[in-house]
Amino acid sequence: MYLSKLFIPITKDLPAEAKIKSHQLMLRTGMIKQSSAGIYSWLPLGFKVMKKIEKIVREEQNSVGAQEMLMPTIQSSEIWKESGRYDDYGEEMLRITDRQGREMLYGPTNEELITDVFRSSIKSYKSLPQILYHIQWKFRDEIRPRFGVMRCKEFYMKDAYSFDLSDEEAKKSYNKMFFSYLKTFNRLGLKAIPMSAETGPIGGDLSHEFIILADTGESKIYTDKKIFEINLKNYKFNDLSLKKMREDFTQIYTATDEKFDKDDFDKKVEKKNQVIAKGIEVGHIFYFSDKYSIPMNCMIDDKEGKKISVKMGSYGIGVSRLVAATIEANYNNDVMKWPKSISPFDVVIIPSISKNNKENLQKAEKIYKDLKKQNIDVLLDDVDENMSNKFKKHDLIGVPYQIIVGSKSEGSNLEFKELNLKSELLSLDNIKSKIKT
Ligand code: ATP
Ligand code: MG
Prior knowledge:
With 437 residues, the protein is of the alpha+beta class. It is 31% helix and 27% strand. The longest helix has 21 residues, at 167-187. It is globular. The model has no long low-confidence stretch (mean pLDDT 95).
């Protein structure tokens, strides 16, 4: 893609309404545009990053055996009356009436809808366990939408739901999701802490929030450095090993402000390992057993032919919030550097251009074609602008690698720079292999 053709409305001014870095940056680089309070359009650059995150989330859900489906955004109020949440959910729920006067709503979450799907087709223990998920827009009429897509009204969420025969079996599904979440955040280049959590209006007795470290986070975290040293590769994908994995994570001290106790912290965590940081919640998982299956009469026949209620859990990841959260976690010294796995482009070529010298541009176009042939997603900055402005702009856009076509290139060697590091002279072949690994 040529930068001059890309729909990327970059603005120089700091948007006054944006209080945190990710929001400022997403507006300045034209990733999003607010359409009304808490509701955003995703412009090409932002959309591309979100889709890359979505793809990783999807792959890691599929890899633990969850099956993708798609439920609608608009739901009928009937099922919410059955579960008892229609009144409980309160003003965060956007309620709509259709032309027949039927009460509808824009789904804030999907426990009821998935329970309805499940109960209408699954009748026997033989079909269990099941984990179903979808990636779909949600709407919550947040009282104070803020920080851009971090806390907004309409947001993109992956939500999964597990169905099991017993509490014991259900915990196995829970552990699979726990594992899948940690793998997902690893691939996004984020340090995530699973934190035992209150279950709130979703209910139940087992729940974890996944919090990533970022200076501007809403929650304060206290933990032990050791939590980042646990290597997921040491666990196998079987029930016993995954149980051990969850135990290994959860036995390490973690607390947010509400539960923090200084004496306890000092007793359980060596001084040199103490981590006190800020974090952002990017995922939340719950085991709530038959909280919905009982009122909604979601029953199956067990081995003896007895009707029992299905045991359920639900598992959410804020896909759109992750775009902002990743920026918060990576922004440093006015430079935004995307993790390779979700960067909007693999590499940017920056030729030094002037009115009477188009030689560098031509050279850059040749490199561009060559990289394209290798399936490398390249951005070519063909805008006629001075180099220092270009560099500032690319510090914000955050493509991790740059090929600079200017006076420093020597023969067939090109100036290559990884954001935040010093540039070096490399052959195009070396550059390709750096980008690809
Ligand atoms: P929070 O505590 O941040 O309000 P929640 O507990 O209401 O979130 P869940 O119902 O657990 O959120 O939703 C799952 C995930 O969806 C959250 O971990 C978060 O990443 C994302 N999410 C929730 N609410 C919003 C929102 N208003 N804007 C953007 N993302 C959101
Ligand atoms: Mg939560």
